[in-house]
Each structure stands twice: as structure tokens, then as C-alpha cells.
Specification:
about 350 residues; alpha/beta; Rossmann fold; six-stranded parallel beta sheet; 14 helices
Length: about 350
């Protein structure tokens, strides 16, 4: 069986979680010899699996009627705090995403909020719940990675390093991260991420003005994916103050690297995560938890344990098995082979 994996991100916007998920899907599928993987322009397959939703998605999917899979990373709510003037564009965004989801024969909902978002639009598609997998061995830190990461960032061995990861936009909570940094001058703060969508990013002027006033945070800009394991290894703590997410990869990568993660307390995570996680409601609570993790060794160890348990839910082997099962179902449907034993639940 041959799987055609597609994403426009490889051509235009690599500095985001969608591109990471696309690249890691390819890596995951190639771990065994049970499927052949075709990427973008390399040819055609038995089933079609796309991660993005632009014209390329509709064009490449033309010959795959009945065999189109779309991993839904973005729902209409995702543009709030991401695009400027998002309220004006929201009616069009809802119309467009309904068309995107309906074009797919199967939409993979990476979180309960994504599943509900697809249903709310009334899209004519089958929904399968399947989270993003995490490649734990890829992110697990070593002493050498930590040393190299700190060299890359210009940090000393003794610094307590607080990391933020994401695009420089309001939705990601970068302004709150800056406020936390200003309140804890004894720590070193790093933000990894830039603006892959350029001027089509919410809050450029506002955020840039705040960044210019901050001497407490190092900004790396957009980094290639292969550098991120070193950046995570250099850090002691990830703050993830985003206001809206679906199934974000950055906190899973950080947890797999071996550090506590502090989330904003939002509904999406309550529905998504099966195990407990550290969370804050306000900037003051982010500051309080950061200080406690810096100075309370037993609490820090508890944070590490929480991270270990959190990522167990995203086991790549289980997710891969379900994906292969789905591919087989769609491929066999094409050939009219009975599928009563191959349905994905």
C-alpha cells in the first residue's frame, strides 16, 4: 500500500506545529516497511493524507475521491489572536473550513475541541479522533545536547532557563511571557519562534514595541526543526501561556525532553489530557509557579513526573497502528474488499 502525504508547509511556512506534524508523520510511517510513503510531488498513492488546507490540498486530492484524509490542526477559533481583523474575516473562515473538512472523506480530529469544531460547522465528513503522536526518543535530552543548546543560546551552565515556544502573536501569550520574565530577573528567558506568516500576524506593532523594551528575553526567531531538540535540552522549564490550542506539539516535545511544563488553564486541555498537568490562570500564577519550580526541588521533581505521565497518552506506536488501519480501510474500500474487521474506533 502506498500513502500520499501532502502539506503546503514544506514550500511556504515551516516555522509552525503543522509543518512539524507533517514531517513527523512521514518519519513515523517510514519506521516500518508495511507502507510506502509518497510526499507531495513524488507521485501518487492508494490513499491521500493532507495536513494543510490551501489550493494545493484541493488540487492534489482531485484523483482521490473516497480516499482523502485531512488532519485538522486548525479550526475557526484558531484565527482569534492569530490574524489581524479576525472578526471581519470570521464568516468567510467558517465557510471556507466547512468546505475544507467536507472535501475530506475522513477528518482526523487531533483533540475533542477540534472534533466539536468540525461538528459545529456541519461539515459533511466522517470524523476520527486521533491525537498527534510524540517521538519521545527524538526529544530526550543528553548532557551533550544540553551543553550545545546553551552554547547556541549564549547561556551559562548555571542559568535557570525558562523557555517559551510559538509564533510571535497574541494568541500564543508572548506578551504574558514577557511580563513573567520582567518579574523574575534572576532567571534567563528564551522565546523560540517567529512569524512564518509575516504581516498576516496579529499584533505585530503592539508586540514588537513590548519586545523592544524587554532586555530579559532572548528571541531566537524561527528555527529549523533539527535545532529544537538542543533548545529544549538547554531549558529547565517550559511556560506555555497560549490562549487557544488544539493538540499543541511544543509542550509534548518539552515534556519528552525532560522538564516541567506550565500551561494556561483553558478548556481545551481539560478535554484533551487524560493525566494531570501544571496550570496557571493568570500572569501572577505563572510567576508564582515559575518561582516555586526554581526554588523547590521536590516540586520540580513532581513537575518532571507529571511530564512523564502526560506524554504516555500520545504513544506513537498506538497512533501509528490506528493510522495504518484507517489507510487499509480506505484502500480496501476502493477495491471493494469487506472491512468489518478494519474499522477505526
Amino acid at each position: 500500500m502506498k500513502v500520499h502525504v501532502v502539506s503546503e508547509s514544506i514550500y511556504i511556512t515551516k516555522g509552525n506545529g503543522v509543518h512539524t506534524a507533517f514531517m513527523e508523520l512521514i518519519e513515523l510511517l517510514k519506521e516500518k516497511n508495511d507502507v510506502e510513503v509518497v510526499v507531495n510531488e513524488e507521485g501518487h498513492g492508494d490513499v491521500f493524507h493532507c495536513h494543510t488546507y490551501g489550493p494545493y490540498y484541493f488540487w492534489k486530492g482531485l484523483r482521490y475521491k473516497g480516499r482523502r484524509i485531512h488532519t485538522v490542526h486548525v479550526i475557526p477559533d484558531s484565527i482569534k489572536g492569530s490574524l489581524p481583523y479576525w472578526r471581519i474575516f470570521m464568516p468567510f473562515v467558517k465557510w471556507y473550513f466547512k468546505m475544507v473538512y467536507s472535501y475530506a472523506d475522513v477528518c482526523l480530529a487531533i483533540s475533542p475541541m477540534v472534533e466539536q469544531g468540525i461538528k459545529d460547522l456541519g461539515a459533511n465528513t466522517r470524523i476520527v479522533k486521533l491525537s498527534n503522536p510524540i517521538h519521545v526518543e527524538k526529544w530526550k535530552r543528553t548532557a551533550e545536547m544540553r551543553s550545545e543548546g546553551r552554547r547556541m543560546l549564549g547561556l551559562s551552565d548555571t542559568d535557570f532557563v525558562v523557555l517559551g515556544v510559538g509564533q510571535l502573536q497574541g494568541r500564543k501569550g508572548v506578551e504574558d511571557f514577557l511580563d513573567v520574565a520582567e518579574s523574575i530577573p534572576e532567571a534567563q528567558f528564551v522565546w523560540a519562534g517567529g512569524r512564518p506568516f509575516g504581516v498576516f500576524t496579529e499584533g505585530i506593532t503592539r508586540i514588537d514595541a513590548k519586545v523592544a523594551k524587554s532586555a530579559q528575553v532572548k528571541f531566537t526567531g524561527m528555527l529549523d526543526l533539527d535545532k529544537m531538540p538542543f533548545i529544549y535540552a538547554a531549558a529547565d522549564l517550559l511556560l506555555f501561556p497560549s490562549y487557544q490550542e488544539n493538540c499543541p506539539l511544543a509542550p509534548l516535545e518539552a515534556a519528552a525532553s525532560g522538564m516541567p511544563v506550565v500551561f494556561r488553564n483553558i478548556k481545551e486541555y481539560t478535554l484533551l489530557y487524560e493525566n494531570t498537568y501544571l496550570k496557571a490562570n493568570t500572569t501572577s500564577e505563572f510567576i508564582e509557579l515559575t518561582r516555586r519550580l526554581m526554588h523547590d526541588k521536590s516540586f520540580y521533581e513532581q513537575g518532571l513526573k507529571i511530564s512523564e505521565e502526560m506524554i504516555m497518552q500520545f504513544d506513537k506506536k498506538i497512533i501509528r497502528e490506528k493510522l495504518i488501519q484507517l489507510y487499509q480501510e480506505l484502500s480496501y474500500n476502493r477495491n471493494r474488499i469487506p472491512l468489518h474487521k478494519l474499522s477505526v474506533r
